[in-house]
Design goal:
3 helices; 20% helix; globular
Length: 147
């Protein structure tokens, strides 16, 4: 089990993935595969207007996130900060319960309710002010072996 930030202790139980914003999955993919990460096909996430490519190595996930349009929230991130680390995602057993626990602890939320994520997950984001400047995602993953 991965250590979680103190703010998420008892809410999150494992690191789910690290998300990297890229301008182009097609261009970035080869570098990650050259490092030894395996990948499948990108998935379009309508709710977030992004394309996501899941790359894996030794059971760990790195997600390459590409804006699908100029109006995607990720386009704004790229404009301000450029490509790079976007967020850390922590696995939770129940996203709705994790949101409530975060609220009870006074953590600032971006999402007040769970929403669809990639590959059948349910997600919610915590504001970076809640976790020392790092955008964090809560992920309920029905396919996880850690459940």
């Amino acid at each position: 089990m991965t250590d979680t930030p103190r703010e998420l202790a008892g809410i999150a139980h494992d690191l789910h993935h690290v998300a990297i914003v890229v301008r182009s999955i097609a261009e970035a993919r080869s570098a990650w595969e050259a490092l030894g990460l395996a990948s499948a096909e990108p998935e379009y996430i309508e709710d977030q207007d992004v394309n996501v490519l899941v790359c894996t190595i030794a059971g760990q996930r790195v997600e390459l996130v590409e804006p699908a349009s100029e109006t995607s929230p990720v386009s704004n991130f790229l404009e301000k900060r450029g490509p790079g680390l976007h967020h850390l995602a922590f696995e939770v057993r129940d996203c709705a319960a994790a949101i409530e626990a975060a609220k009870e602890r006074g953590l600032e939320l971006i999402d007040e309710a769970p929403r669809p994520g990639s590959h059948g997950t349910t997600i919610a984001f915590l504001h970076p002010r809640a976790t020392g400047g790092v955008l964090c995602e809560l992920v309920e993953d029905p396919s996880s072996s850690a459940r």
